Amino acid sequence: MPTRENQFYVDKPEYGKYYRAFVSEELMDITRKMFLPSRNREDNFIVGLSMEG
Could you tell me if residue 25 is inside a domain? Predict the structure, then answer.
């Protein structure tokens, strides 16, 4: 997972960073190959927990 550096996972093509595309497209493709999630968008969620101070 790439670091977001306070960019809130938005694409920044001028810097060659495509966080939104990674999270919403590439990561889902990788997940489908590994876990067989539902194809229904409503059934899938991205959840996280930050342990930063």
Answer: yes
